[in-house]
Amino acid sequence: MKKYLVIGNPIKHSLSPKLHNYWIKQNNIDAIYEKKNITEKELESVITNIRDEKIHGINVTVPYKQKIISFLDNVTPLAEEARSVNTIYKENNNIIGDNTDITGFDLAIRNSNYELKNKKIFILGAGGVSPSIIVALRKNGVSKIILGNRTREKAEYLKKQYPEIEIVNWGETHKADLIINATSLGLKKEDKIELNYSEIGPNKLFYDVIYNPKQTNFLLEASKFGNKILNGKMMFIYQAHRAFFKWHNILPKIDENVINLLDQ
Ligand code: ATR
What are the angstrom distances between the C-alpha of 206 and each of 95, 115, 227, 243? Predict the structure, then answer.
């Protein structure tokens, strides 16, 4: 039986096992997908387990998407561009790191019928998911990306990687066509993001990477002002879908059952 893992810290709330095991069963694959909370010191031994084929694939989540890279033999061009790896596998005796978050975000936005070309984007947050979103936005020819983060140095660090982005102060409101919450603010029901929603809306798209809760206060407020809203659920499903294909060479179904599976 092949073994797959999602690693991170914290990992308790990850829904990746639920989704992957559903597809594994649906496709009669002899495999299991588990979650493992690990410390930074354990990263190397996890990769050794892939080398020894004790583990056949790994998803990586917060806070290790960058830190894992130094233990790999190679990364794909997308992972290189985002300097962020969320999917790992062994290929021709090399341990490869890939990034399926970029495609996950891209497909989620595309399938909502939103056209990114020439749009002005305002990103809140410079955490682990932000580089993947920036890479996806660049590929889609957006006209401008503004980014604000509570810890300004982290935003400045991103600007070194992507010089075209403009860094703004955390707490400032900026007009944009698409406003993205890429922070963890919203995971708790009471979390609020200080934004002047009336200055931005109506008829803009507000996107939240968070999908649990389904509607963060960020999305709730935005919809009150007549904006379109979208949570991170489809991005999560599409990133998993690509990882699944990479590991099993099967494109699993994304249907109502899969979508409902994630509504705990
Ligand atoms: P990491 O800190 O490892 O990057 P993450 O979950 O990938 O973790 O990112 C968390 C994001 O949410 C960061 O942008 C973080 O801002 P800081 O860089 O200033 O930490 C943001 N965030 C978390 N809690 C926040 C809060 N209470 N107010 C504003 N931003 C917050």
Answer: 37, 14, 7, 26
* Triad 80, 85, 86: Cα angle to 5°: 150
Query: Which residue among 36, 54, 65, 119 is the active-site one?
Result: 65
CA angle in degrees (0–180, nearest 5) for 179-129-158: 85
Output b/e per residue, 228-251; b: 16+ Cβ within 10 A. Answer: bbbbbbbbbbbbbbbbbebbbeee
Active site residue 233: no
- Span from the CA of 125 to the centroid of ligand 1 (angstroms): 6
pLDDT > 70: percent of the chain: 100
Please report where in the chains the tokens 């305002």 appear, as a residue: 122
- For residue 78, how far is its CA from the centre of ligand 1 (angstroms)? 23
User: What count of Cα atoms within 13 Å lies in the side-chain half-sphere of residue 24?
Assistant: 18
What confidence tens digit (pLDDT) does each residue in 219-263 have? Answer: 999 999 999 999 999 999 999 999 999 999 999 999 999 999 998
Contacts of 180 (CB under 8 A, 6+ apart): 121, 122, 123, 124, 125, 133, 206, 207, 208, 209
Q: Contact at 8 Å (CB) between 216 and 192? A: no
φ, ψ dihedrals at 97, nearest 5°: -110, 130
Biggest CA–CA distance in the chain, Å, is 56
Contact (Cβ atoms closer than 8 angstroms) between residue 182 and residue 207? no
